[in-house]
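User: structure tokens for this one?
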Amino acid sequence: RISNASSKSTASTYNVSSSPGGRGALFAARVGVIARGSFTLSLLGALTWSSVEMAKILKLLSVRSWWLLAVGAGATFARVCAALALSALWTVPLGVAIGKDENLAARVQPLVQIAASVPATALFP
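Assistant:
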């Protein structure tokens, strides 16, 4: 049996009234805290285990494999930078032109709105 003093302090901690329905709400709040804690601990355990397993696998890679990974990552980075630069070369001047010319904005704005409504993933094959 819970005394009134501890019930009131716990009830105020969980912002629950001391009415008869308050004990059910208090129980639900405690279950929620336990569930969140259990989920967090499970997630941390899974992350720790997977990190250890990943380290074991990566330890098996040769120096040549690490070099190939670095070259591949560098090539990917260069492609992304080139794509961003290429896209900025025409979109920034076009955006400035549309922003400065009201007639051009009136003609192009509907097309821009249609293009903006298409999700980017729809453009991938």
